[in-house]
Each structure stands twice: as structure tokens, then as C-alpha cells.
Write a structure and sequence with these properties.
Largest sheet: 6 strands, antiparallel
Order of helices and strands: HHEHEEEEEHHH
Distance between the termini: 62 Å
Number of helices: 6
Low-confidence stretches: none
Radius of gyration: 17 Å
Length: 159
């Protein structure tokens, strides 16, 4: 009656325990994942989320019951961490199922172009004490929780 359990994202994506726990992978691991023959890339776009403007990349990988879709975001400026995110990619399992499949050479070109656009800014220090505090809180909880904590502190932090 019950079928085999659906594979977990960390299994399908080949994530380490830390990568699963913190929902982020290194840029090196991400690019290895992209180049894997079992990975299909469905979408690359520059867009905003609650934390800043990033490059979003939706991929899929085969499972025993179809494909698992995941969206990665990075290569952008995190407004609350007050720093450029270039050496890591955040990820989440995506409910978005795309039919479009992008050529990997095109994806590599889009990644390279975005990296070239932001690298000159990413080498400049931008993080204040508030940004460092946000980053510490976010790494202990998550970005949404850290934002709530900073808002609860109100003007206290600025004094």
C-alpha cells in the first residue's frame, strides 16, 4: 500500500551534513553539481528575495520517483549581512517544475558574466557591526529569525 519513501533532497543532491543543516553549499561544490551529467538546469535569473538581489538557479536531478527540483541562490549582495555572497550558494527544495532545459555552456556563461559584474564590488569591505551581528544570529538560527531579533532590538543596537 505504501510505496518507497521519497528520497530526501540531501541524498539526491549529494550534500554533506553541514550543507543540509545550513542550507548552503560552497561555490566549488555547486559548480560540480551543475556540471554533473545527471543535473538538468531549468532556470537562471537575477531576482530579489527578502535579503537582496541574487542569481537564482533551478536544477533537477533524477530520483526513483521522478525528479527532485532545487533552487540555489547566490552571486549577490545580502542586504542584512551587508556583504557579497559569492563563495557559497543557499538552496531550498523547489516546488517549481520547469520543462525548459538550459544548455550548460549557457549557464556557465551566465554565471561567469554575473561574477565578473560583481567581483569588483565584492572585494570591498562593506560589513558593519550590525551586519556582523546579523550574520552571527543568522548562522545560529536562520536569516528570518535574525531579522526578527534585530527588529526586536530596535534602537538599542544603534545607541
Amino acid at each position: 500500500m505504501f510505496g518507497k519513501e521519497r528520497p530526501q533532497p540531501h541524498e539526491v543532491l549529494g550534500l554533506t551534513e553541514n550543507e543540509q543543516l545550513f542550507d548552503r553549499i560552497s561555490d566549488v561544490h555547486f559548480r560540480t553539481l551543475l556540471s554533473d551529467e545527471n543535473t538538468l538546469v531549468h532556470m537562471v535569473e537575477l531576482a530579489n528575495n527578502s535579503f537582496g538581489e541574487f542569481q537564482f538557479i533551478t536544477i533537477s536531478r533524477p530520483t526513483t520517483s521522478g525528479r527532485l527540483y532545487a533552487t540555489f541562490w547566490g552571486n549577490g549582495y545580502h542586504d542584512y549581512r551587508e556583504r557579497w555572497i559569492m563563495s557559497e550558494w543557499r538552496w531550498y527544495e523547489s516546488a517549481r517544475h520547469e520543462d525548459q532545459i538550459l544548455a550548460k555552456t549557457d549557464v556557465e556563461a551566465m554565471l561567469r558574466q554575473r561574477t565578473e559584474e560583481i567581483v569588483k564590488y565584492a572585494t570591498q569591505p562593506t560589513q558593519t557591526e550590525r551586519g556582523r551581528l546579523f550574520e552571527i544570529l543568522a548562522d545560529l538560527t536562520d536569516d528570518d529569525g535574525a531579522l526578527s531579533d534585530l527588529e526586536d532590538m530596535g534602537d538599542w543596537f544603534d545607541e
